[in-house]
Amino acid sequence: MTRTGAACRGSAVLALPASTVARFAPGGSTVGHATGTTCRLTLGAWSWPGLAGLLLTFDADSTDIEPAELRQALHSLRTRTSKGLAPDHVEP
Q1: Could you say which DSSP state residue 25 is in?
Q2: Distance between CA 19 and CA 86 in Å, rounded?
Q3: What is the C-alpha separation between 40 and 82, in angstroms, rounded?
Q4: Are strands 30-33 and 8-14 parallel, antiparallel or unpaired?
């Protein structure tokens, strides 16, 4: 799961049943059964932050996030969001 050209591909185990995720996963995604209550979602996007955003739309706990670029994008989004939510945040 690496970046090829303009496409980024990654995956995570989501705390949702595969049947639920499969109904809402974007085209080109792969949903694999992990347990009765979890699944592995593999999908692609045009950027790592975009891919991270797609994972967040499932509003579920996630583990085993791959590759490192996707984990870094999630960290970056967390940092940017935290700054925006800070009580002393001033709009530029």
Answers
A1: P
A2: 37
A3: 27
A4: unpaired
